[in-house]
Design a protein that fits this description.
Layout (H helix, E strand, L loop, with lengths): L1 H20 L1 H22 L6 H17 L12 H18 L6 H27 L1 H25 L3 E3 L3 E5 H21 L6 H28 L15 H17 L4
Antiparallel strand pairs: 1-2
């Protein structure tokens, strides 16, 4: 617990000022996190033994992240949809070149894995460009949900939420996380109000909280499927980049689809 708290404090002291400042420092931080996250995923799926597909997926991740900052890299004119088409074509072509030593199922895992990591961090950059308040709101709701779920689960938890996926999570913890998230959303709207009806903001708050918890479960399901304890060890007490950002990676594309950003 002490190690986890110390890591969180140090990480926040670095992360929050850069996020608030934005611009190139924020982009570079996100680019590094996205790169590390993709490497973590490749290790988890044992993709490192497939060198060429791993390089293709990592390169596609870089192109997708670069496409979120075209005002810096104006000469590239990137589009992440084109990048994904290229990724699919190259990986499926490699199944033929490798004579199915790299299978269709493995190509699908690489493609979906790249989408999971790269698109999540792409929208992390995109949301910061839309407005700092949107990003901070999303982060605060996710953090409030995590904290609320942790303490509510420890104090009141008895009924397991999804024991085959994440044995420590409880229904009481999930509900407690949602309640704390709603309270946080109300406070945020009072302190720094959005230009939208309160009921709509409340709906987004509930959505972020529930989707964030599902994103956590998705990461847990992936780790169970590929038999890994954590995606990485970069953050002592927290695991790796994906372990720390699993909720955000899942939430941000949903918020884009639902026109929050």
């Amino acid at each position: 617990m002490v190690k986890r708290i110390i890591t969180a404090i140090i990480a926040l002291l670095i992360f929050i000022p850069i996020t608030v400042y934005g611009g190139l420092p924020f982009f570079m931080l996100t680019f590094v996190m996205g790169t590390i996250g993709m490497i973590e995923l490749l290790r988890a799926i044992n993709g490192i033994k497939f060198l060429i597909p791993s390089v293709i997926s990592l390169f596609a991740t870089w192109l997708i992240l670069l496409s979120a900052q075209d005002y810096i890299f104006t000469f590239l004119k990137l589009d992440f949809k084109i990048t994904f088409i290229g990724l699919m074509v190259l990986l499926l072509t490699y199944t033929v070149c490798s004579e199915n030593k790299f299978s269709f199922e493995q190509a699908g895992t690489f493609i979906l894995g790249t989408m999971y990591v790269a698109i999540g961090f792409y929208f992390f950059i995109y949301m910061r460009e839309v407005g700092l308040s949107y990003l901070l709101f999303t982060l605060f709701i996710i953090w409030a949900t995590d904290s609320g779920a942790y303490f509510s689960g420890n104090l009141f938890g008895s009924k397991k939420l999804w024991p085959s996926i994440s044995p420590n999570k409880t229904v009481e913890g999930a509900i407690g996380g949602l309640i704390i998230a709603i309270i946080t959303g109300i406070i945020f709207q009072i302190v720094a109000p959005f230009d939208m009806p309160f009921i709509l903001l409340l709906g987004y708050t509930i959505l972020i909280s529930i989707a964030g918890q599902m994103g956590d479960l998705v990461a847990s399901a992936l780790k169970r499927h590929f038999a890994v304890d954590d995606f990485g060890q970069l953050l002592p007490g927290h695991g790796g980049i994906i372990d720390r950002f699993d909720s955000l990676l899942f939430v941000l594309p949903i918020l884009y689809v639902l026109n929050f950003i």
